[in-house]
Design a protein that fits this description.
Length: about 425
């Protein structure tokens, strides 16, 4: 029995159920990761969930200790509980019907008997990083199976080569100067395909706004940048951040500060203001006993709070703060690393006029300091005068991308939101009025 613990994350996907399907696997051992995927032209989701685990263990050449993480109760309960009764009944269910997928259950049982395995269920499509990656790999297998009309990949798509050693220097050079470079990305949220063939780039020093109605894909774009969802890994697809094809998520969080509604909604209400800011060093939703902060980090947190005018909130509970105060604490959290890029998600939503204008002033200060800013919103009043590029997003597609002065017209915005809108301007700001 090898002493290293192998972590295995699996997922399956199917279009039609039955229909074309795919499976995906992320394996991690001693800091090295591998990705596997494949598919079948006609199958079911349960078969793909099972086959993902089977394919993962078929790459292991000797007995190991393993933890398997799946979002399929069918797999997790089947292999750890139900299979014993199925075997006792001669592979029959309690109502004496043949067990479905018995061929795969037998294969999985034979492989599992060799190893020491812990079976864990995790909630699917809930932001779990490795589960989202496995889901994207499964969908890649599904896409290949659909195109090929046969076994899309009876061997793993990447058959054991450590991904960390891939040399992307040439590709990275092509994206030099790009902070964000997304090319031909297909992205799912659960069973919904949000983006098909999405391409988008943001360069250092640019200030841009992504504008779109609810349901246009804005939240999914933010999750893609945060590494919370992953594109289907098709040959033509790439997502490069800061010129790197597979950036370390922790490095990205130090270089790209994000302030989002999801973070504000999910943040621990009992955290103190100073702890909310310090948590930015660990990208956590509070500070915890195992986290250590240097004197320099504590000093940096206090400095940022003072700069944003929230030092008085240091010992107040996050849940007791106003929406504007919470938003400024989370901005301070994003700024502790002094990141070159800031991403704002509807930054003034829910704020009264005073808090709204105060926050927009803070945003403009960051632009004046040389930060690259990406604003994602449907509130036109949030578009600071310094933001000079606009991207119109609707139903997962970029409809227009160009100078703000060209795109922000009453006619164009009315078509974007399917509603007659009149735009007015004053002092470089925009406001939308009905009619």
């Amino acid at each position: 029995m090898k002493s290293e613990l192998i972590e295995i994350y699996t997922d399956g996907a199917c279009s039609g159920n039955p229909g074309p399907g795919g499976w995906g696997v992320v394996l991690r051992v001693d800091g090295v990761e591998r990705e596997l995927s494949g598919g079948e032209p006609t199958t079911t989701n349960n078969r793909m969930e099972l086959l993902a685990v089977i394919e993962a263990f078929q790459t292991v050449t000797e007995p190991v200790k393993a933890r398997v993480y799946t979002d399929s109760r069918y797999v997790q309960k089947g292999i750890s509980e139900w299979i014993h009764e199925w075997k006792r009944r001669g592979w029959k269910t309690a109502d004496k019907k043949p067990v479905k997928n018995a061929d795969l259950w037998r294969r999985l049982e034979a492989l599992a008997s060799i190893h020491e395995i812990e079976w864990h269920w995790i909630k699917g499509h809930h932001g779990h990083r490795e589960n989202e990656r496995a889901d994207a790999l499964a969908r890649a297998g599904l896409q290949r199976a659909r195109r090929a009309g046969k076994w899309a990949n009876s061997s793993p798509a990447i058959s054991g080569s450590p991904l960390m050693v891939k040399d992307n220097r040439t590709e990275a050079c092509q994206a030099a100067g790009s902070v964000i470079d997304i090319r031909h990305a297909t992205v799912y949220r659960g069973e919904t395909c949000v983006f098909t063939n999405l391409s988008f780039a943001l360069h250092e020093g640019e200030h841009a706004v992504v504008i779109g109605p609810n349901g246009s894909g804005k939240s999914t774009l933010l999750k893609l940048l945060a590494g919370e969802v992953h594109p289907v890994p098709l040959p033509e697809t790439s997502v490069r951040l800061f010129g790197e094809d597979r950036p370390n998520v922790w490095d990205v969080r130090k270089r790209m500060g994000m302030v989002s509604h999801d973070l504000q909604r999910e943040y621990m209400v009992s955290a103190k203001g100073i702890d909310a800011v310090l948590s930015g060093f660990y990208a956590s939703n509070d500070t915890y006993d195992h986290q250590q902060f240097s004197d320099a980090q504590v000093s940096r947190a206090w400095t940022v709070m003072a700069e944003l005018g929230i030092a008085s909130l240091a010992n107040r509970r996050f849940g007791h703060l106003s929406a504007g105060e919470q938003r400024r604490c989370l901005l301070a959290r994003a700024l502790v690393h002094d990141p070159p890029v800031l991403v704002f998600d509807e930054p003034t939503s829910g704020l009264d006029p005073k808090a709204c204008f105060q926050y927009l002033d803070l945003l403009r200060v960051q632009i004046a300091k040389g930060k690259t800013v990406l604003l994602v919103t449907h509130h036109l009043h949030e578009i600071a005068p310094e933001i000079d590029r606009a991207i119109f997003l609707k139903e997962g597609k970029i409809l227009a991308d160009g100078p703000k002065r060209t795109l922000l017209t009453s006619d164009r915005v009315s078509r974007l939101f399917d509603r007659t809108i009149t735009l007015v301007q004053a002092n470089g700001w925009y406001q939308a009025l009905p009619g």
